[in-house]
Protein 1
Amino acid sequence: MPMQRPLSPFMFPTWYRFQITSALSILHRLTGIALAVGSILLTWWLVAVAAGGELFAATHSFIRSPVGTVLLFLWSVAFFYHLCNGIRHLAWDAGYGFELRSAYRGGYIVIAVALVLTVLAWAYVLLA
Amino acid sequence: MSDNRSLSNSTALRDGSVLRRVRHLGSARDGLREWRLQRLTALALIPLGLYFTASLLRLATSDRLTAAAWLSSPVPALLVILFLLAGLAHMLIGLRSVFLDYVHSRARLLAAGLLVRAATAVLMGASVLAVLKLFLGR
């Protein structure tokens, strides 16, 4: 009789206490998956620019619609978070920031920098 | 332990006990290349991604001529193609490791792996072709 064990990725609410370290870790995966979905839309946009005509007109009005704008915004949030936390991962690979204190501090820095980059990017888009 | 040592990578293919070893002891002595490629593409994607995102967020809502003019000039075309290659390779490795963790049957894992490889190949081909078409000016 095999033991009934809880399986990932459904550990969070019931089996694990909330911690920022594990929350950011699963968020890295979730944003990675979101960016993978975004790569389909990105390819669609590139193909539309290359093709022009009806396809571009339809794509253009979709991107400018509320849904398209929200998707683009979420894509940018996912990108900046994944970028910052990815750099945190590279630091870990190089052997830095593994102590509990720095793991937590790195997590807060990642959130802050990702937010700042998102705000800066959209300020640049909307004001420049 | 000394037996373990004789099993070098160069003789691994001819050693009949390798599969048994792998099944019972874990390490497949494989995967470092993928791990390295994930890190290398991650490093490349720091500058490429920042450049691409800063440009994309402005161009995504612009008219076709502006976007096409940007994509057909040499430096953006080159950097966008590099971004696409590094990004989609990075995506493939990442998605496969997600499947490896969460897909708990061998058949489904194989199917998911094939599907994501095919999807990546299509995305890579289509997006690079689109940029090339604009760059070559047709």
Protein 2
Amino acid sequence: MALDRDDVRKIAFLARIKVPDAELAPLADELNGIIGWVEQLSEVDTDGVEPMTSVTEMTLKSRDDAVSDAGYPDRVVRNAPDRAGDFYAVPKVVE
Amino acid sequence: MTYLIQGDTGDWEVVIGLEVHAQVSSEAKLFSGSPTAFGAEPNTQVSLVDAAMPGMLPVINKFCVEQAVKTGLGLQAAINLHSVFERKNYFYADLPQGYQISQYQHPIVGEGTVILDMPDGTSREIGIERLHMEQDAGKSMHDQDPKRSFIDLNRAGVCLMEIVSKPDLRSPEEAGVFVRKLRSILRYLGTCDGNMEQGSMRADVNVSVRHPGETEYRTRAEIKNVNSVRFIMQAIEVEAARQVETWEAGDEVVQETRLFDPDRAETRSMRAKEFAHDYRYFPDPDLLPVDLDQAFVDGIAAALPELPDAKKERFIADFGLSAYDAGVLVADRETAAFFENVAEGRDAKQAANWLTTNLFGALNAAGKDIAESPVSAAQLGELLDLMADATISGRIAKDVFEEMFETSKDPGAIVEEKGLKQITDTGAIEAAVDQVINDNPGQADEVRGGNDKAIGWFVGQVMKATQGKANPQMVNQLLRDKLKG
Amino acid sequence: MAKLNDLTLAEARDGLAAGDFSAVELAEDCIAAMEAARDLNLFITETPEIARERAAQSDARRAAGGAHGAMDGIPIAVKDLFCTEGVLTTAASHILDGFHPPYESTVSQNLIDAGAVMLGKTNLDEFAMGSANMTSYYGPVKNPWVGAAGEDLVPGGSSGGSVAAVAANVCPGSTGTDTGGSIRQPASLCGVVGLKPTYGRCSRWGIVAFASSLDQAGPFARTVRDSAIMLKAMAGHDPKDSTSAPVEVPDFEAAITGDVKGLRVGIPKEYTLDGMPAEIQALWDRGAEWLKQQGAEIVPVSLPHTKYALPAYYIVAPAEASSNLARYDGVRYGLRVDGDSLDEMYENTRGAGFGAEVRRRVMIGTYVLSAGYYDAYYVKAQQVRTKILNEFKQTFADVDVLLTPTAPNAAFPIGAKMDDPVAMYLNDIFTVPANMAGLPGISVPAGLDADGLPLGLQIVAKPFDEETMFRAADALERAAEFTAKPKYLGGQGG
Ligand SMILES: [Mg+2]
Ligand SMILES: [Zn+2]
């Protein structure tokens, strides 16, 4: 299935990337080129094959329930483009 | 007790399913070592992991996994030995990673059951669809600045259990009872403190309506993040009414998320936020699947506390309580323990009465809960003992209790201090009885003439004369002997 | 006397230990070489002050008899994908403008703890997405080797600055990351040794994530021995990374015994591509012959799903990247481009902050995970990945290592191949399978093509068997006697 401009517009919004209207069509062509190429995977018989969840044979490691971090709001917000005290600030959200 | 909405086209029933988010009572967050305590200064409980700094990685808190399993067992649910954390991708200001780590296709807990005891004495079995673990988001504040929203990530990454019911609930009342029962079970288990004011428990409420007899569900709306039992019930009521109106006007109810506004008692569409949602779930490649062994689950099962349903059965069987009293007493783990302490080796029904009437009444009036009770279980037990061995009468006991509630003093000390010990000396009581008879010849004649009711009046007078300290049975007996003998 | 920056890592180690020169002297020569090589655009941030300070500390440790081992006092360059405390970290992206991490990545911390001396943060493809170092917001890196007609060539990618710094003798070692070949392919194109260890060998904590299930850090150096020394300092279990392996780090240098007698070397027939330059096939054959002459056994093997590794990679990697890069939203760090609403701010920030290739991959990844396409693309690719892994497992039951070319071509001119993404992706055709299966792989310079440009051969080994990988790589290296040098050495071009 080939992507059209509207598909690309939707994907761009899902990904929150502004794509100027003029670039939608060329981008659709590029993406279709890549998708057309990866579609060769349909040749592979994968019936009953488990999708991979981890390349190495490991079990999930875990931590104890102990407080070991935090308490440094300055380090947390220091790099923020906009802040108010120790809060991050963003354009007003209307709910 | 069917809840039906009468519409112009006939009756409508309400179909409700709840997604309850319960915060695991852990010290640290699900995937980072930062603390979870409520009410801290902004961004002080945030690690670099919670703030989604580049290259930061999650490591799971094993205590949280245990609590989820424990809760699953408490809901009589299937525990899935294999579960998977997935990323739920969406953009929002309080979601720093741009995804929530949650469980989707393979939750840690599968189907279970919750029994509801309805106030009318019936009970309902409500299915649990699943329980999964996930991260909480941060908090956005929209009212601090005219142009900006402020973000505090203290909650971001706190471990939640999302408990999803089947659409088995049929009235606002059932939904309320369900949430209270769930809260009770979680608190018994100790896996969630159930504190709804602090957001430790909140619910997404799925509501649809249909005519009784319809076999398919109609379109539902999801009311997000309702944070009290009262609001849950109200939200269902107004949303169901809205949907009935919508259908009856010939319109369609649309599947959407809505917001409950308690001030206006209405639900509002959040359609703007809904636009083009596509969560793109996939297994989190920073984590491995959770693989538990059965022995681990068995160990948790073996250490499970007695839960409200079992405790209720036992209270009925062992203490001879009514189903109603037993239900009231087991709703809260601390109340049940308080009761057992008082009832142990005493008259359990009397203990139940004193708890549900006197103690609960006083606590309610004082706005306190059982943990803050000025009267301890041992003290209330001693008070019952003083009645049992006739040291004081039931009438005096009420006064002593009031004093106990005010001062936290032992009942024995109060009785001693105020000289409230019951008069059981026949001579002293007889003197009082004679005095009262002599002072009231007219009433005495009435009794002699056959008016038994008037005896009650004499008892009252004698008790008054002895400041309530005379043994009422003895007073009664003496009056009968003297007036009718 | 030759400049100290020309020394190999092992030579520098031995010279420092013998007191022939100080770490400060070594650092000064490397700093001078770094400055002289600015035309190659190797570094996004130079940190000579940090280098001088750490070198002085190293000398003080050594004087007090407490040197930390092989890496103590060794100048290195760090790919600008590793977060470095207080030092600008960009991932070569506009979107991380001004980001100074308040933390140090585990791998770079391990190197600091080992006494290494950081010269600066090297240029790369934006978010490590590229095979030519052409996608950096900070401009392309030039390969120190030049084309036959004197034209500027790409160094390969994505670790272009790190590889070129080592090739140009700016420093004896550098760090890279390898998601689909981003260490091995540029190593091949620049005539140095580059390796990706087993997935889980190096911690990913503090490395800007591209594709979590594929990313691994590894070293660049000019010899196999140097690579072994440096990997030892970088690797190790990290409790902060759930995918870091709780295994001991062996003495990799000690594994280089010079003995490959009886080693079973698999030659996978599917790595022969239509249209592959004849000289690459010839080099590959020669490599097999070299190992055979030293007593190894050459075993033809078949890995029929190899051809699907690359397309499967171009589903899995963008999918993970689309999610990993969601955190670059203009709220907590980096670039923000304002908008009237939160969504507009996101779109403006990410639209302006991401370059064309990153944007392409994020959108592909978003698409393959979206409703209705997830099973057809993402699940399918992960199933194919399972098949690839199983195929490797079967093959490794019979052989100890695999020998393949590293890249299907030598370095190409800057600007070539840019208009067709898929043509660019083919650069990683021989390196991607090891990432898909989590296997260690190393590229060793093995010869020159007709234009006098370097070509590498790749050894792929079993999981956590880097020791055998090093042993085989060393045998290749000794036989290849690769002594050619690029035009720009220490920035001093001819
Ligand atoms: Mg929900
Ligand atoms: Zn949830």
